[in-house]
Amino acid sequence: MNRRRAPRLEGAALRKLTLIDPETLDDLPPEDDRDDEDAPEHTEEEAADIVTAQRFRADYDRGAREARAALRRR
User: Is the pTM of this model over 0.85?
Assistant: First the structure.
């Protein structure tokens, strides 16, 4: 039987989980439930930074997938 394991938390995701104190969850501000149409506009520079960060993340994720695949092939 081939069982799949739950994804392993690494890096920022793990740090984020370990830094949350359950007692402070009630003190968090409510989530922003505005529609995208009501969201504030970004300047061109902010939009460019967001796109750059998204591309970097996509490249990082792609590299990580390729590295895991290479390790599995060994």
Answer: no
Q: Are 50 and 42 in contact (CB under 8 A)?
A: yes
Nearest of 48, 61, 65 to residue 12 by alpha carbon: 61
20-66 pLDDT, tens digit each: 566 665 665 666 555 556 666 778 888 888 889 999 999 999 999 99
Distance between CA atoms of 65 and 40, rounded to whole angstroms?
A: 34
For residues 26 and 18, the answer to whether their CB atoms sit within 8 Å is: no
- Domain ranges, ordered by start, for the chain: 43-74
